[in-house]
Amino acid sequence: LAKDRGKNNYQFYTNKLQELSLWKLEIENGLRKALENHQFELHFQPQFEMETGMIVGVEALVRWQHPDKGLVSPAEFISLAEETGLIVPLGYWVLKEACLQNKRWQNSGYNPMVISVNVSVRQLQNENFVEMVKDILCQTNLDPCYLELEITESMMLTQESSTSLLKQLNELGVSVAIDDFGTGYSSLCRLKQLPIDRIKIDKSFVDDIDHHPNQGAMVKTIIDMGHNLGFRVIAEGIETQAQADFLMKHECLHGQGYYFSKPLPAVQVEKLFN
Ligand code: C2E
Ligand code: MG
Ligand code: MG
Ligand code: MG
């Protein structure tokens, strides 16, 4: 009977929902404990000047060293950390650890370079955000010129106050990059007015560069546009020589991707430093 089936469906969905929220609750508790028990760690993916193979920076990417599950990727927990607000303390830890590590490398005598740190909208919405960045730079004694914050286009759409925020960060001396560039909907007019230092061309554009002429033309347009707006340009998700060649040919000189190096723990990535 339809009525029974309706009831079964209802039951099916409530069970599924219960499972889902249980799972979420489990992760949420797990995340909270992970913070207390220091189960997060940073990996670092180098950014290259592609022509010379010189490393010009590193991006810090968080991982969760789970006691049972092993290394958990951020794709599995960042959005939940955002939903629950746990991204605020987690983001604080990430930023501080990244600055500390960069300072450690400088103290060991490596050529100073910029460390890029991903920042969520929830962190930016916190009215103390700029103060917090300042505080961490002060505590870690890292020169602000060696820190770059990666934000996404969506953050600038939603936030009118984002203009003032970016200006404050600019005055502080840290740089700002637009991550996953091209996947959002920011207007060029708006971008042009903001103190942004560089754009990171999203992997999805890089993927088909060498197979689809349209995609190639699109990437070429993004590179030119970025330069015309006064931004530096880096491409992410480069997996092949052909992709790197295409990008270099069209004046995108910096790149990041598995073709050059995967994200690595600190002790491994520093072996690649110049
Ligand atoms: P993202 O910031 O765009 O980082 C690039 C992601 O692409 C990283 O995944 C990186 O490992 C991966 N990647 C780099 N090169 C290649 C490549 O050649 N091929 C492929 N298939 N992938 C490549 P990851 O580390 O899993 O991070 C995923 C996303 O999670 C990041 O995307 C970022 O949005 C977020 N995330 C990571 N760490 C943090 C963090 O500390 N805070 C916040 N708020 N978000 C973070
Ligand atoms: Mg990023
Ligand atoms: Mg990205
Ligand atoms: Mg991203």
UniProtKB/TrEMBL annotation:
The keyword Thylakoid does not apply. Coiled coil: none annotated. The keyword Transmembrane helix applies. One of its GO terms (biological process) is regulation of DNA-templated transcription. Residues 24-274 form the EAL domain. Signal peptide: none annotated. Keywords: Membrane, Transmembrane, Transmembrane helix. This is PAS domain S-box-containing protein/diguanylate cyclase (GGDEF) domain-containing protein. It comes from Mesobacillus persicus. The chain holds residues 463 to 736 of 736 of the full protein.
